[in-house]
Write a structure and sequence with these properties.
The complex is a heterodimer of chains A (541) and B (274). Chain A has 541 residues and is of the alpha/beta class. Chain A is 45% helix and 10% strand. Chain B has two domains: 2-120, no CATH class; 127-273, Rossmann fold. In chain B, 49% of the residues lie in helices and 12% in strands. Classes of the chains: A alpha/beta (541), B alpha/beta (274).
Chain lengths: 541, 274
C-alpha cells in the first residue's frame, strides 16, 4: 500500500526554501480561512464589553489552574522536550507511519479511507452514513458526534445538513454553540464567549423538552443537557468522532474528553466513523506516557484526564462492530513541506496558547476566522492554506510577539518565530504583486497605510545599514525637537504613524542623539572609568 | 573591562539619556566604555515586518560595526528585546540570505552581547545597587518585565532585583506583570485597537499600584506605556502624573545627583521621565 500524500523528504535532500512554489502542493479547504481582516473583526469584538468580561474571567481562571499543575511537575521541561522530540520523529517518518497505522487498523477489523481535502473527507463520511444510518420518520438521518476539531475544520455538519443528515453535537459546550446557531470561539471551551445566563437562555429557546423554570445554576444546566442527549445516545446508529491520537504500531485510536458523552458515542452506536488529521499519529503506545501527562495539564489544568478512551478496530460483541477511519490531509502536506513552519503540526490541540495570549483574551476566537483561533490558529491556518489565501494574510500580524504562547506550548512550537516566518511569506507575496502592478495600483498602494510602512522600511533599511547614515538623518533632531516643545509631548502625527498617536502620546524628541553627544564628548578617545575628568559634563544635551 | 555599548536605534534617537546613564553606571564600576560608531539597529523592525531582504544589510551593518571596534571584552545594550533579536533572529536572516559566514559572525557577536541587568548581575557581580553603584531613588516605583527579556533571554528577576536594592526605592508589585503591554513594534499600528486594549489594562494595573513611575528595561515598551499613561492623563494618589522610567536611569541616580529629588513629582514628556 502506498500513500498518495506526496510527503517531502524530511531531513535528507535539498532544504525547501521559503520561496513558494505556487500550486505545487494543494492547500486546505474548509473552515480555515479568515473572511475579514483580523484588525477589522477584532475592532468590532473589542466593542463587546460582555465578551471581554466573559473571556477575561475564563482565560484567567484556566491560566491559573494550568500554572499550578504545571508547577508541581519537576520534570515539566523534560516532558515538553520529549513531546517535541516524538512529534519531530513522527513528522520525519509520516509516510511510513501512516502505512503502518493503516495496515494495523485494517488487521484489527477496521476500514481505512484517505482524504486529500475537506471535500473528499465530507463525501466519504456522507457515503458511510447513508450506508449505515436509517432514514427516520422525519425523512432524515441522524448521527451523534464527539467534539472534534477535524470535523469542524472540514465543515462536516454544514455539509451533511442539506444532504438530509442531522449531526448532533454531544459535548456540552458544542451543544450550546450548535443550539445557539453560533460558532465555537475556542478549541477546548467552544462556548467560552458565553456566560451561564446566556446559556440558560439558549436552552430555554432551543431545547424542545426543557423545563421552562430552568435556572442558570451550572448543575441544572448540565442536567438539562444530559436529559436532552441521553435519548440520542440510545437510539442513534452511527457516531462520528475525531481522534487525539492514532498509534501507528497497533492501529489504535484514542479520544480524550471530560464529560463521558464522548464515551457514549464511542460505545453505543453500531457504526463509528473517525476523522483524523494525518499528523495525529504517535509511533507506539509507550509515547502516550508523555502526551497523557502534557495534554490534561496544558488544556484543562487537570492532573489526569477524566475520560480517556482507546479502541483498536472491532471487538466482537463489544462496542461498534463497524469501524472506520478517514485519514485527512487537507493542507497538512503543504504545512509539512514548509521547513520553517512544519512544527505547527506538532500541535495537540490543548489550547494553552489561547489561554495565555493577550490578543486572544481581548478579541476572542471568532476574529481569527478559522476553526483554529488564537496563536496556533494564526500560524496553522495560513500554513494549511497558503498565506495568500483569502484574508489569511492578516493572521501572522495578529500578535505582539510577546512569546507567552511559546512558553506555554507543551510540545514547544515556537509560534512567534513561525509568525515572523509567515510575515516573510506575506511580504514576498506582496512584493511580487507590486512588481507586476500597474502605475495606478502603485499610486494607490503608496497612499495606503501598508504602502507607507513599506516605503518607510525601504528607507530605513538603507539608513540603518550604517550608523554614518543615521548620523546624517539625526542632524534633523534639533529642528524636530521643536515639535511639541510647548506641551512637552506630541499628540498627533500624520500618515501611517497616526495609528500610534490614536491612543498614545509621543515624547518630545531630544535636541541631540546619543551618537551626537558621544561624538562631541567622547569621540576622540574611549571613555575611562579611571579618568573621569576626560568625560565631558554629563546631562549636556 | 572594556565594554562596547550597543545603544539601540530608539535609545540613540529618542532616549539618549538612557545610553548616557548606561555609560555612567559602567564607568562608576571602573569599566571603560566604547561606542562602535557605525552601529545602528538590530534589524528587528524589518524582521518582524517580514522584510527579510531589507533586514539583511541592517544585520550585516550591525555585525560589521562591532567587529571594526578593536579590543572590547563584552557588549551591552539597555534593551532585552534588541539583545534577544541578535541571538534569535540575526543568524536566521543571514542564513536565509545564504550568508553562512555572516550567520556565524552574528552568532558570535550575540553570544558576547548582554542586556544591561544581565551584564551587571552575571558578569560584573552587582548584587546591591545602593552599595555598588550608589543608586538612590526615593520614590514609589513599580516594574514591568518586558516580554523578550523575560521569555527569550530568561532574565528572570534580574532587573527587579537590581531595582529592589536601590536606596530609598518604594518598589511596588505590578498586578499581571507578565502580560504584554501591547507594543509589539508595528503591531501597535497594524492592530492598533487590540494593542490599545492591552495598553489600557497595563496602564490600569500600573495606576492601581499607587506608584508614580513604572520602571522597565526596554525603552520601546516604556514609550508605549508612557504614551498611553500620558494620553489618558493618569494620576498617582499624590496627584502627580504617572509615567515610565528606564532601569538605567534609576540605577544611575545618586544622592549627589538625583534623577528626581526626594518628594518631587516627575516631569514627564509623552509619559517618559526625561
Amino acid at each position: 500500500m502506498t500513500t498518495f500524500l506526496g510527503m517531502p523528504a524530511v531531513g535528507g535532500g535539498p532544504a525547501i526554501r521559503h520561496a513558494r512554489v505556487p500550486g505545487s502542493i494543494p492547500g486546505a479547504l474548509g473552515n480555515v480561512f479568515e473572511s475579514e481582516h483580523f484588525p477589522d473583526y477584532a475592532e468590532r469584538e473589542l466593542g463587546n464589553a460582555q465578551l471581554r468580561r466573559n473571556l477575561g474571567h475564563a482565560t484567567s481562571t484556566i491560566r491559573a489552574k494550568r500554572a499550578n499543575v504545571v508547577a508541581e511537575l519537576p520534570d515539566w521541561e523534560e516532558l515538553r522536550s520529549a513531546g517535541a522530540a516524538i512529534k519531530q520523529t513522527v513528522m520525519a517518518n509520516l509516510p511510513e507511519l501512516l502505512e503502518q497505522f493503516a495496515e494495523a487498523f485494517e488487521a484489527a477489523g477496521g476500514h481505512v479511507h484517505w482524504a486529500r481535502d475537506a471535500d473528499e473527507a465530507n463525501r466519504i463520511v456522507e457515503e458511510l452514513i447513508e450506508a449505515h444510518a436509517p432514514v427516520l420518520d422525519t425523512g432524515r438521518r441522524e448521527v451523534v458526534k464527539i467534539k472534534s476539531m477535524a470535523t469542524q475544520e472540514i465543515g462536516l455538519n454544514e455539509y451533511l445538513e442539506p444532504r438530509g443528515i442531522d449531526a448532533f453535537e454531544t459535548d456540552l459546550a458544542e451543544l450550546i454553540v450548535q443550539l445557539g446557531d453560533d460558532k465555537p470561539s475556542h478549541i477546548l471551551v467552544p462556548a467560552i464567549h458565553k456566560n451561564r445566563t446566556e446559556i440558560r437562555d439558549i436552552f430555554l429557546e432551543q431545547m424542545p423538552d426543557v423545563d421552562p423554570g430552568l435556572t442558570d445554576d451550572p448543575p441544572k444546566l448540565a442536567e438539562a443537557a444530559r436529559r436532552h442527549l441521553r435519548n440520542k445516545f440510545l437510539t442513534t446508529k452511527v457516531a462520528v468522532s475525531g481522534a487525539n491520537f492514532g498509534i501507528a504500531s497497533t492501529g489504535t485510536l484514542g479520544v480524550v474528553e471530560s464529560e463521558g458523552n464522548g464515551r457514549m458515542c464511542l460505545t453505543l452506536p453500531e457504526t463509528l466513523i473517525t476523522v483524523m488529521g494525518i499528523e495525529k499519529l504517535l509511533p507506539a503506545p509507550e509515547d502516550l506516557e508523555v502526551f497523557l501527562q502534557l495534554l490534561p495539564r496544558s488544556s484543562t489544568g487537570e492532573r489526569m484526564n477524566p475520560y480517556t478512551s482507546f479502541w483498536t478496530g472491532v471487538t466482537p460483541g463489544d462496542g461498534p462492530q463497524n469501524v472506520h477511519v478517514v485519514l485527512l490531509d487537507n493542507g497538512r502536506s503543504r504545512a509539512l513541506a514548509d521547513e520553517y513552519g512544519r512544527s505547527a503540526l506538532h500541535c495537540i490541540r490543548c489550547s494553552a496558547c489561547m489561554n495565555v495570549c493577550p490578543v486572544y483574551e481581548r478579541t476572542g476566537g471568532h476574529a481569527y476566522g478559522s476553526t483554529y483561533p488564537g496563536p496556533i490558529g494564526a500560524i496553522l491556518s495560513p500554513l494549511l492554506t497558503g498565506v495568500e489565501a483569502e484574508e489569511n494574510d492578516s493572521l501572522p500580524y495578529a500578535s505582539s510577539l510577546c512569546g507567552a504562547c511559546y512558553s506555554a506550548c507543551p510540545v514547544k512550537i515556537d509560534i512567534p518565530s513561525i509568525l515572523v516566518h509567515l510575515r516573510g511569506e506575506d511580504h514576498l507575496a506582496k512584493e511580487e504583486a507590486a512588481a507586476e502592478a500597474g502605475p495606478a495600483q502603485r499610486v494607490r498602494r503608496l497612499a495606503s497605510a501598508e504602502g507607507q510602512l513599506d516605503a518607510g522600511l525601504k528607507a530605513a533599511s538603507w539608513a540603518m545599514a550604517d550608523g554614518r547614515r543615521i548620523a546624517l538623518a539625526e542632524r534633523a533632531l534639533p529642528l524636530a525637537s521643536l515639535l511639541g516643545a510647548r506641551s512637552g509631548r506630541i499628540r498627533r502625527m500624520p500618515g501611517v504613524v497616526g495609528a500610534w498617536t490614536s491612543s498614545r502620546d509621543v515624547p518630545r524628541l531630544p535636541a541631540q542623539s546619543f551618537r551626537t553627544w558621544w561624538g562631541k564628548n567622547r569621540g576622540a578617545a574611549p571613555s575611562s572609568g579611571h579618568d573621569r575628568s576626560a568625560a565631558a559634563k554629563e546631562g549636556d544635551r | 573591562m572594556r565594554i562596547a555599548l550597543f545603544a539601540t536605534c530608539i535609545v540613540d534617537a529618542m532616549y539618549p539619556e538612557v545610553a548616557r546613564d548606561t555609560v555612567t553606571i559602567l564607568e562608576r564600576l571602573g569599566h571603560e566604555v566604547v561606542f562602535p560608531e557605525r552601529q545602528a539597529c538590530c534589524g528587528q523592525m524589518h524582521i518582524n515586518s517580514g522584510d527579510f531582504a531589507g533586514a539583511h544589510p541592517v544585520v550585516a551593518g550591525h555585525v560589521r560595526a562591532f567587529e571594526e571596534e578593536p579590543g572590547w571584552d563584552v557588549a551591552v545594550a539597555p534593551s532585552g528585546s534588541c539583545v534577544a533579536s541578535l541571538g534569535h533572529q540575526q543568524p536566521m536572516i543571514a542564513r536565509r540570505a545564504g550568508d553562512e559566514d555572516l550567520a556565524a559572525r552574528a552568532e558570535d557577536l550575540a553570544s558576547r552581547t548582554y542586556e544591561l541587568a544581565q551584564l551587571l548581575t552575571d558578569v560584573l557581580g552587582v548584587t546591591d545597587a545602593a552599595a555598588q553603584l550608589g543608586s538612590y531613588f526615593p520614590h514609589p516605583v513599580t516594574y514591568h518585565p518586558s516580554c523578550h527579556g523575560m521569555r527569550l533571554l530568561n532574565l528572570g528577576d534580574r532587573q527587579r532585583e537590581l531595582l529592589s536594592t536601590v536606596e530609598g526605592i518604594d518598589l511596588r508589585e505590578l498586578p499581571q506583570a507578565d502580560q504584554c503591554c501591547g507594543f509589539g513594534g508595528t503591531f501597535s499600528m497594524k492592530n492598533r485597537q487590540v494593542s490599545s486594549a492591552m495598553l489600557e489594562d497595563k496602564a490600569a494595573n500600573i495606576v492601581s499600584t499607587g506608584a508614580s513611575l513604572c520602571a522597565g528595561g526596554d525603552a520601546s515598551c516604556l514609550m508605549h506605556i508612557g504614551g498611553g499613561l500620558s494620553r489618558s492623563g493618569a494620576v498617582s494618589p499624590r496627584g502627580g502624573a504617572v509615567g515610565t522610567v528606564h532601569l538605567a536611569r534609576v540605577l544611575a541616580s545618586t544622592r549627589e545627583k538625583p534623577l528626581l529629588p526626594p518628594r518631587s513629582e516627575p516631569i514627564l514628556s509623552g509619559g517618559s521621565l526625561r
